[in-house]
């Protein structure tokens, strides 16, 4: 009955919105927890707390999703930090520009600056394999429905990238482990509302009969904190065009190679054993 109600609500809402063009902006708050167990006994609890505080700006972010019926753009609301802070230096090496999604053309483009070079990571938007749930909850004034899926996590693992100690004598065994770990699965839970019939959401997520207001993926949660429908100023969603066009696999290989070069530079300066 709940699934039938969801369908009927979605149909009524779609009919209402279809009577006119509509657009909107949704603000999201993102929080990520760090896996401090990777440091083991190498750091005291006080040192771990200090590290968490130092990386707060990296672990807690705010984003804006601008959307209309067919396209959306997801951008970080960047705040300027004090010059020379650790989080700021990290951010310069991991700077996301935007994630553009076009539902009509089934095209997704991540506009990202990495190592002082801009890339356009282009992907085909295949329909995600969501499992529709029967649970509901309120997020603000919107009734949301639960959906879940398990997908391949193809994001760059920055913590792993820079925490591994290079050891040329064990190169072969390390490469073998890396190949086994390349395919990592990620459990995702989404909460969407048919009251806003846009098949989009934060980050790379889409494919549900309503705007996604909350995403839980691994150690990260993105929650919508504000929605403005049909603002006075017209929202212009532009397709990114500046940067080197690559696919996801090519981009990850470029990042991995450059990160290894940076790690080797740290070694040559006598700081190879230091971890972030």
Write a brief structural summary.
This protein is α+β, with helices and mostly antiparallel strands.
Write up what this structure looks like.
The protein is of the alpha+beta class and 276 residues long. It has one domain (2-268). The protein has 7 helices and 12 strands. A 12-stranded mixed beta sheet has the order 7-8-9-10-11-1-2-3-4-5-6-12. The model is unreliable at 2-16, 85-94, 164-180 and 272-276 (pLDDT under 50).
What structural keywords apply?
276 residues; alpha+beta; 12 strands; 28% helix; disordered C terminus
Class derived from helix and strand content = alpha+beta
Q: Which band does the percent of strand residues land in?
A: 35-45%
- In order across it, which strands form the biggest sheet? 7-8-9-10-11-1-2-3-4-5-6-12
- Number of DSSP strands? 12
One letter per element, helices H and strands E, the order comes to: HEHHEEHEEEEEHHEEEEH
Question: Could you estimate the helical fraction of the residues in percent?
Answer: 25-40%
| Major sheet | 12 strands, mixed
Which blocks of ≥5 consecutive residues have pLDDT under 50?
2-16, 85-94, 164-180, 272-276
Distance between the termini: 51 Å
Globular, elongated, flat, extended or rod-shaped: what is the shape? globular
């Amino acid at each position: 009955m709940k699934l039938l109600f969801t369908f009927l609500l979605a149909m009524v809402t779609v009919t209402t919105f279809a009577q006119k063009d509509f657009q909107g902006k949704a603000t999201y708050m993102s929080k990520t927890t760090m896996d401090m167990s990777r440091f083991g006994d190498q750091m005291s609890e006080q040192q771990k707390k200090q590290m968490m505080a130092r990386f707060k700006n990296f672990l807690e972010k705010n984003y804006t999703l601008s959307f209309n019926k067919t396209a959306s753009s997801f951008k970080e609301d960047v705040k300027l930090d004090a010059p020379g802070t650790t989080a700021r230096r990290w951010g310069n090496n991991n700077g996301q520009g935007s994630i553009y999604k076009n539902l009509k053309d089934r095209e997704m483009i991540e506009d990202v600056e990495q190592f002082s070079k801009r890339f356009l990571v282009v992907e085909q938007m295949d329909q995600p394999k969501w499992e529709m749930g029967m649970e509901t909850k309120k997020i603000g004034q919107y009734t949301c429905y639960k959906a879940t899926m398990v997908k391949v996590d193809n994001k760059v693992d920055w913590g792993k990238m820079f925490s591994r100690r290079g050891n040329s004598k064990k190169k072969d065994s390390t490469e073998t482990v890396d190949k086994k770990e390349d395919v990592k699965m990620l459990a995702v839970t989404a909460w969407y509302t048919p009251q806003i019939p846009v098949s989009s959401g934060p980050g790379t997520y889409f494919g549900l009969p309503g705007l996604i207001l909350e995403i839980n993926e691994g150690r990260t949660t993105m929650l919508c904190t504000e929605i403005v429908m049909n603002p006075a100023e017209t929202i212009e969603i532009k397709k990114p065009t500046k940067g080197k066009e690559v696919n996801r696999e090519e981009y990850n290989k470029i990042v991995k190679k450059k990160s290894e070069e940076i790690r080797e530079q740290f070694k040559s300066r006598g700081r190879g054993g230091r971890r972030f």
